[in-house]
Amino acid sequence: MTTTSDLPAADLLPFFAYRDQQLVMEGVPLERLAHEHGTPLFVYSKAAMLSALAAYQRGLKGRPHLICYAMKANSSLAILQTLVRAGCGLDIVSGGELERALAAGVEPSKVIFSGVGKTRAEMRQALTAGIGCFNVESRAELDVLNEVAHDMGRRAPVSVRVNPNVDAQTHPYISTGLKGNKFGIAHEDVIDTYVHAAACDGLRVVGIDCHIGSQITQTGPYLDAMDRVLDLVEAIEARGVAIEHIDFGGGLGIDYQGDTPPEADALWSQLLQRMEARGYGDRKIYIEPGRSLVGNAGVCLTEVLYLKPGEHKNFLIVDAAMNDLPRPAMYQAFHRIVPVAQPQTEEQATTWDVVGPVCESGDWLGRDRALSVRAGDLLAVMSAGAYCMSMASNYNTRGRAAEVLVDGTRSTLIRERETPADQFRTERMLPAA
Ligand code: LLP
Asked: Which of 11, 33, 349, 400 is most buried, judged by most C-beta within 10 A?
């Protein structure tokens, strides 16, 4: 293929470029995938995921560590396989995620189980699988886990999730480390909880963990949380309870709209320096990144159905909707939206609200976007690798989109488009009247 232009257009992320006026991910033109598989279509770059992971691996190199990908960000099996094969453990939050994790081939000892509402059945399932650690979020949960493990003749490996009361300075719905949040055990109750846990014969204390929020774009909140957690480790160990690993959670943000979060390797060299300075340089570190591993590796391709210019607003109606991409509706989140075929520079752009077909005013993907488009054109909603497909629903009986993984010049369908029959499968009709 002769390349007339190979522009990494100002607004494009790594692993994307316009070649011959066509948006390309790694070596694959996205238009071809849309034609082959239809739209809406999620497409992920393997190289983008591995490069994001490599930044963490560089930052933590030479230290005992485990990177547990928070699979809630994108739990598609092939995505899990990609990260597990590259060395990741997994952070799960349900029995369903445990099944996915095991199906993807993760070593059970590299699985950690987070979440405020684990059921007894999920605890038994995880103990049977032999997971590495339960991140416990309340005293009541700790006692139930102790009982369940004791009845099975096991000792459950536990870490207590502490709420460090640190402001992550992010959207209130994704901020989790403040006193008013439902997450973690309050700072002042942590030491007693550890002393109690250490005395339970169904439990084995292995770590401590925290997670202060998501889409964090500054280093300060991490340093504050680290200081508070290390203060606790000191106090807990002074009471005779050993802490093998310290889990600092996930939360590192990505560039959605010119955001400039620290690079994972730079962040971790700074955090490791702080740990070393405080005498914890050799302690095993766990982290639970989700969004920062997959978010900017994915796009959602969508076709423009109708142009609906109006007196107050111009609407661009596309075939992807809030059931596919719930983040704008839920958090007023911004995703870049770019044309798959690069428009000629002389074409005049119009300002559009990009909306989906779902019957809700909240069904929008982008507001006031300057685009020069016609019906039938393809658009790419960027930064759609995290918390899109994993949060997709069947609202309006819309089938969930198909997914494709790109690796160099190859592409593989990793999820078929969901059909109405798939959706009906678990339903039962009433008997004939
Ligand atoms: N660990 C725990 C305990 C968590 O609750 C989360 C995310 C993570 C790790 C991973 O955080 P990340 O590295 O992805 O920021 N749906 C929202 C994000 C919810 C995050 C929930 N917890 C969104 O679309 O922005």
From this structure: 33
